[in-house]
Amino acid sequence: MNTLSSYRIGPPFLLYEHHTTFPDPNLALTEPDGLLAIGGDLSSERLLSAYQQGVFPWFSDDQPILWWSPDPRCVVYPQQLNISRSMKKVLRKGEYKITYDRAFEQVIRECAAPRDNQPNTWITEEMLQAYSELHRKGAAHSVECWHQGELVGGLYGVAIGQVFFGESMFSHRNNASKAAFITLTQQLIEWGYQLIDCQLHSDHLESLGAVMITRSRFLKLLDIHCRQQPGKHAWEKD
């Protein structure tokens, strides 16, 4: 139950450690966009509660845990996936092998590695351990892209009901992360998924079919699809 007794009044709201409820995401700040709450912990229970309420953690090592629900929200409707001609050629060549949940910790550590234009990472050791625990509980998943036996790209995220909440991706070879995302999305369609949450806009995601929707629309979709079960054999492919 979402009650003000679970946190101190904000925004941003200050979360108590032993409560997993969140304030109404519509109360999030507009500047910085979507900042809703501070504090709490990264327990599996809190993380799963957050995602179902349209909230996700995003912070650096020198910050407290920050919880966000931006408006608008970047999403992909799986059936509206966009595959460019060049990517169709890449996929037809078959040079990449895509697997699921074969190397979760390796994928998340690759995603956490500093980028050329981003010397710092928001995937702290605390975040890494929290999502690894979610993976052990069957709620977080990785998608790996291999080339000649080497991991060259991939992504990870959280699956609840018929929604996949994408967290981060990496690529060490041209189009590797795109190949992973496209193959995953096609598989999610077979598994009955209705929505992919991409959190924030990027040109990379837009090229794959991502669109921006209002937070209120996003929350309505979560309320519907997080309650519905995916296909019987979801995440059993490998």
Key terms for this structure?
single chain, 238 residues, alpha+beta, Alpha-Beta Plaits, Aminopeptidase, 2 domains, five-stranded mixed β-sheet, 12 strands, globular
Sum this structure up briefly:
This protein has helices at residues 44-52, 85-93, 104-112, 125-136, 176-190, 203-207, 215-225, and strands at 7-8, 13-15, 35-39, 56-57, 66-68, 73-76, 97-100, 140-147, 150-160, 163-171, 195-199, 211-213. The protein has 238 residues and is of the alpha+beta class.
Descriptive account of the structure:
The chain is an alpha+beta fold. The chain has two domains: 4-69, 2-Layer Sandwich (Alpha-Beta Plaits); 74-225, Aminopeptidase, CATH 3.40.630.70. Helices cover 29% and strands 25% of the residues. It is built from seven helices and twelve strands. The strands form two sheets. The chain has a seven-stranded mixed beta sheet with strand order 7-8-9-10-11-6-12, sandwiched between helices. Strands 1-2-3-5-4 form a five-stranded mixed beta sheet, with helices on one face. Strand 10 (163-171), helix 5 (176-190) and strand 11 (195-199) form a beta-alpha-beta unit. The radius of gyration is 17 Å and the shape is globular. The mean pLDDT is 93.
